[in-house]
Amino acid sequence: MTEQQRHQFERGTDGPKVIVAGIDGSESSMRAAAYAAGLARRQNAMLALVYVQPVMPAGAALGAPVADVTGEVAEGLVSEIRESTERLKDIWNVRWEFHTFRGDPYNGLVTAADELKADAVVVGASESAGHRFVGSVAVRLVKAGRWPVTVVP
Fold first, then answer.
1. Is 29 in contact with 153 (CB distance < 8 Å)?
2. pLDDT in the model for residue 57
3. pTM of the model
4. Measured between alpha carbons, how far is 5 from 7 in angstroms, rounded to an integer?
């Protein structure tokens, strides 16, 4: 075996080692995070919770403090997650990390999954009616076919 073969990343050999869960504060994304936490606990995998901060150039052009608002959302999500894990730490022990990326949700989750070498991606079902025309993040992730994707209702 060559040096390169030994250090080459291999997906899904012994169960997932990293599970990425996309969260945005919506009910479905929080259910997805809880589902992913259960998977991570049972598989002894790292749970990577990912919040993608939207980039809204139109809002910025109008003088809206977009970065401040999305940063506050990220901080609120981290607080909520920390409180939940603190309450459950004696019952379940899940290794987790929180990551933020900037951009649209689909590209942010793809970047996160690639950078974190995800074995699986878990997202909540879309709650937006507009996704019937554009396509939801979940559908786009499934169509990418790069990871197993679980969509939690």
1. no
2. 56
3. 0.74
4. 6
